[in-house]
Amino acid sequence: MKYWITVASKDHIARGVAGGFMQANHGKQAALKRMHTGDWVLFYSPKQTMNGTEPCQAFTAIGQVADEEIYQHKMSDDFIPWRRNIGFYQNTETPVAPLVDKLDFITNKKSWGYPFRFGFLEIPEHDFERIKAKMITGKLITLNK
Questions:
Q1: For the CA atoms of the chain, what is the radius of gyration?
Q2: Which domains does the chain have, with CATH numbers?
Q3: With contact defined as beta carbons under 8 Å apart, do 21 and 27 qualify?
Q4: 17, 116, 130, 132: which has the fewest C-beta neighbours closer than 10 Å?
Q5: Minimal CA–CA distance to 44: which of 1, 109, 108, 91?
Q6: Contact 43, 6 (CB under 8 A)
Q7: Start and end of every EVE domain (predicted)?
Q8: Other Cβ atoms within 10 Å of 123 Cβ, number
């Protein structure tokens, strides 16, 4: 089992939670291929909306990869992103700032946002568990709608 973080605006993550899916790195397939059934995913939102400037800087969703399927979904004639099915859990939005000093995957605490710039990253289990303990408040809420 592996533990991942994907980065997207809060509004985009909310669409994924509602639909039981995730996209990564603007709909590219490569990151999704690295994941397997049962892997955990944290969703980090630097901003409230994709084109907005209002910060969020929080983990806004948490879930597990539901199956091995990677598929495309036509959103418009020129945008057909790749997706994976995710089982999302009820959670509390969790600000990253209070956790920075306790997370090993953030090596430079002064430039804590740097690891998130890549849009998708694997993290150690102990860091994942620290974040998960702050987030999960209930049961599975969506699974492959």
A1: 14
A2: 3-142 (3.10.590.10)
A3: no
A4: 130
A5: 91
A6: yes
A7: 2-131
A8: 20
Segment 8-32, tens digit of pLDDT: 999 999 999 999 999 998 889 999 9
Q: Which residue has the tokens 């907005």?
A: 52
- Would the pTM of this model clear 0.70, i.e. be above it? yes
